[in-house]
Specification:
Strand content of chain B: under 5%
Number of helices of chain B: 12
Bound molecules: adenosine-5'-triphosphate, magnesium ion
Largest interface: A-B, 50 and 45 residues
Shape of chain A: globular
Number of helices of chain A: 12
Helix content of chain A: over 70%
Number of domains of chain B: 1
Chains: A mainly alpha (about 290), B mainly alpha (about 280), C alpha/beta (about 250)
Strand order of the largest sheet of chain A: 1-2
Number of strands of chain B: 0
Order of helices and strands of chain B: HHHHHHHHHHHH
Largest sheet of chain A: 2 strands, antiparallel
Structural class of chain A: mainly alpha
Distance between the termini of chain A: 42 Å
Shape of chain B: globular
Oligomer: heterotrimer
Number of strands of chain A: 2
Radius of gyration of chain A: 19 Å
Structural class of chain B: mainly alpha
């Protein structure tokens, strides 16, 4: 029973990671950029969601507002920060992205205070759900539901719609896609939009899960998101999803068995390093 | 006076840290996002030795060796993974160091190691830090002029081509990691004795990024540029007191702006204005 | 001098090289030809260690070097130039060649750290650039010169290692008619001076003119080998080339 509970909690964390990491993979697949600043988008989503929820009392409104705010910020980051430096060496975009993340984290601190804010009314947080003898709170259930729904929608989009097919063509070869009349710029903006909406929604969910929204909440999850997409084999969507769930479970078991030696983040990165030393191309990546 | 001495000491330490990272990332092309871990390894190892009663010189030397030893291990990791993969692995090394130290009772866990013996006065530490900085500066200039510098350049620009002309790429990567991390360990040893206290948070990811900021603001690969970057970023919060409250906003913003508008940093600006390349 | 036995490798189902046996004798100039995608580049990469073979072994001067890393093979005098040029982009052409010319010194990091003397390497590098006719661009950064220069710089860089066995992957591609002829003459000269050479080329006119022996690779296997004119006259060789051309048309 105990193991099952650990597994379940791990999978729920894996779902949040997946919502974050899928966007990171999209961006990496298209542009070869490690988009650390997605953490900013995530945190913005969480704050917007919290403010709307506390003012209007509507969680649905909170999610919509968070998705919109995040969905606006992401493409702006692409347009004004990444696009002008795409032809520079890869560390340039990465460092710019880290800079944005750190600056914005401080910005959130100045705007909303260092200690974080809580939801005025967080019924999901206080509602326990029995689940075949296991008990989860409603936020955890919604995280799983949201992840499955959003990721399935994404899968449908990528395989069934014209835009999705264009997107996949652009990922595999931008110049060929362009010669077939695919608007590469549009595809890139769309990808940042999708990635950011997912991150914004994940931000609200994690805020609800901890009943706390704080300036630094995005950074660690975003660093782990990077670990996950590397683990999955950079730019590989199924690999990313697999790695997300796996990392969630490894952390959840690891904190129990290795908790005396390492903290949660260290366990995650230890796992990453071990896997990469054995498979340098990641779990599902192609050997180079 | 004390105040100026401590600013000078930190400037010296930051120059050591930035130049040592520049050796790994600028000269040899191996991105590292976990440099603070080696600073921390040097600090913790030196602190343990000093608390155990060893003289400061020996403790600092042990700190350098411990940091360099783990640097070699990280260098081996750099043989398995490249570029973006390596960036994330080194970031992971940083988190692993922090997460391990935080949980070890014998390292004081979150509270760190306190009451480290401090045999020198403020003047002594300032002299030591600046002396160390000058030594690492001279070493960097020498490496650049020597055949090692050219071979590093070859490894940084095209590993496979370097191999096919007989350059032992693995050997050079490990050498770069060893020299760079041992130097970071030196900074750590001095820091531990000066402050008499080491805690995990002094060596976190933000510290790694701060070191990286000094390197890229100065101009990655350029020794003089990196020295300027390190000094500038140390003095700036001191000169403009109000910046201290927004330190991360300014650091982060600066990283972003430099990368966005002048990815070659100060050295790049000098090149554009005067047409001369800084060493 | 060089012997490959049963070499094979596959890329996701494509058997790029399949059970190839070949010998290169000391002092010869062998041409390796075959239609596009025949596996020539892959075979050279297997021989020099850029790729690890899934099957087979490589012997160089009687020693099994299958597991010897590329840089060690280069130090032994067994050198490859890449089909796609790989310059050190930020260095000048001269510096590119100098790094190779100093390979005695750069062999070990600590020795390289101890040495700042550039003159001998510089002189040798300059002489090589002159020999290849690109000394006029010696001080231009590699990313700013045309392809023909880079191709020749790459050969100069390889020669700076004083190779005993040199494998050239399409050195004539991208050169015009006279340039190609002059370059081919240079290859003959190098060979006459004692360097054993394996030449991969699509410029069949020049290969048949200068090679002492031809090997034809087709679908990852040796189809024919022998005296150039006889090999070129064989029907199966012509069919292999025409077949590919027909498929491409
Ligand atoms: N790294 C690789 N990954 C996957 N397939 C490869 C790889 N390298 C070569 N191939 C495949 O192996 C086959 C042989 O390729 P190779 O480059 O050796 O041919 P080649 O004879 O050198 O051709 P060309 O004359 O065009 O240079 C081709 O089908 C090619 O697509
Ligand atoms: Mg080829």
């Amino acid at each position: 029973m105990f193991y099952l509970e650990l597994l379940l909690v791990g999978l729920v964390w894996g779902c949040t990671y997946a919502m974050m990491a899928l966007g990171l993979t999209l961006v990496y697949g298209l542009l070869r950029i490690l988009h650390v600043a997605q953490a900013t988008v995530f945190t913005l989503g969480a704050y917007v969601g919290l403010l709307v929820a506390n003012h209007t009392g509507s969680l649905a409104g909170a999610f919509v507002a968070a998705a919109l705010a995040a969905g606006l910020l992401g493409p702006l980051v692409y347009r004004f920060i990444y696009r002008p430096i795409l032809d520079k060496p890869p560390f340039v975009a990465l460092v710019a992205s880290i800079g944005l993340l750190i600056a914005m984290e401080d910005g959130f601190r100045l705007l909303f205070g260092p200690y974080g804010l809580s939801f005025a009314k967080n019924t999901w947080f206080t509602t326990a759900v029995g689940f075949g003898g296991l008990s989860l709170n409603l936020v955890q259930v919604w995280i799983a539901v949201a992840a499955v729904v959003l990721l399935s929608l994404f899968a449908l989009f990528a395989t069934r719609t014209r835009a999705g097919v264009a997107w996949r063509a652009t990922v595999s070869d931008p110049s060929i896609a362009e010669s077939f009349g695919v608007g590469v710029s549009g595809v890139r903006h769309t990808s940042f939009f999708i990635a950011s909406v997912l991150a914004g929604v994940a931000g609200v969910l994690v805020g609800l899960l901890n009943n706390l929204v704080e300036p630094g909440m995005g950074s660690v999850i975003s660093y782990k998101g990077l670990a996950i997409i590397v683990l999955g084999g950079l730019g590989n969507v199924p690999g990313t999803l697999l790695a997300s769930l796996l990392l969630g479970v490894v952390e959840s078991f690891g904190t129990v068995y290795l908790g005396k030696l390492l903290d949660r983040d260290a366990i995650a990165f230890l796992f990453l390093i071990l896997v990469l030393m054995i498979r340098p191309q990641g779990l599902l990546g192609k050997a180079r | 006076m004390d105040y100026y001495l401590s600013v000078a000491t930190f400037a010296g330490l930051n120059v050591i840290l930035a130049l040592s990272l520049n050796l790994i990332s600028g000269f040899c092309g191996q991105v590292s996002l976990g440099h603070a871990a080696f600073y921390g390894l040097g600090a913790y190892a030196a602190a343990l030795c000093s608390v155990a009663g060893l003289p400061m010189g020996v403790s600092v030397a042990v700190g350098m060796l411990v940091a360099g030893g783990f640097g070699i291990v990280t260098g081996f990791a750099a043989l398995r993974v490249r570029e973006d993969f390596l960036a994330i692995v080194t970031m992971g090394v940083g988190f692993l160091f922090l997460g391990a130290v935080r949980k070890q009772a014998w390292l004081g866990a979150e509270m760190g190691i306190a009451k480290i013996p401090s045999p020198l006065d403020k003047w002594g530490y300032a002299a030591l830090a600046i002396g160390g900085a000058v030594a690492v500066l001279l070493l960097s200039l020498h490496v650049r002029r020597s055949w090692m510098g050219r071979a590093f350049g070859a490894v940084a620009q095209d590993e496979d081509a370097a191999r096919s002309i007989g350059v032992d790429v693995s050997g050079y990567k490990i050498a770069a990691f060893f020299i760079g991390t041992a130097a970071a360990g030196l900074a750590g040893g001095i820091y531990a004795h000066m402050t008499q206290l080491v805690v995990p948070d002094a060596f976190n990811f933000v510290q790694s990024v701060t070191i990286l900021a000094m390197v890229v603001v100065g101009g990655i690969g350029s020794t003089l540029g990196v020295v300027a970057g390190a000094v500038l970023l140390t003095l700036m919060p001191e000169m403009f007191r109000f910046i201290n409250d927004y330190k991360l906003l300014v650091y982060g913003g600066l990283l972003l702006l430099v990368m966005r508008f002048s990815p070659e940093g100060l050295a790049g600006l000098v090149h554009r204005v005067t047409g001369r390349r800084l060493a | 001098m060089l012997e490959g036995v049963g070499l094979g490798i596959a890329f996701g189902g494509v058997r790029a090289v399949n059970g190839v046996n070949l010998r290169v004798e000391r002092g010869e100039l062998a041409g390796l030809i075959g239609p596009n995608g025949a596996g020539k580049t892959t075979l050279l990469r297997l021989l020099t260690g850029v790729l690890a073979p899934e099957a087979g072994s490589v012997r160089f001067e009687g020693k099994d070097v299958t597991r010897v890393p590329i840089h060690r093979r280069a130090q032994l005098g067994f050198v490859l130039t890449h089909q796609i040029v790989r310059p050190f982009r930020e260095m000048t052409l001269l510096e590119n060649v100098m790094v190779a010319a100093a390979s005695e010194v750069t062999r070990r990091p600590w020795r390289a750290l101890a040495s700042v003397e550039v003159w001998p390497a510089r002189q040798r590098a300059l002489a090589l650039l002159e020999r290849l006719g690109i000394a006029d661009a010696a001080d231009k950064p590699a990313h700013s010169v045309p392809l023909g220069y880079l191709k020749r710089m790459q050969v100069a860089r390889a020669l700076a290692l004083e190779p005993r066995l040199l494998m050239l992957d399409e050195p004539l591609a991208g050169l015009n008619y006279t340039e190609a002829a002059r370059f081919a003459d240079l290859i003959v000269q190098l060979n006459a001076e004692g360097t054993t050479i394996v030449l991969v080329e699509h410029n069949l006119g020049e290969v048949t003119r200068i090679a002492g022996r031809l090997l034809v690779l087709h679908n990852g296997a040796i189809l024919a080998e022998g005296e150039p004119r006889e090999v070129m006259a064989r029907k199966d060789v012509r069919d292999a080339y025409l077949g590919v051309q027909a498929a491409h048309a």
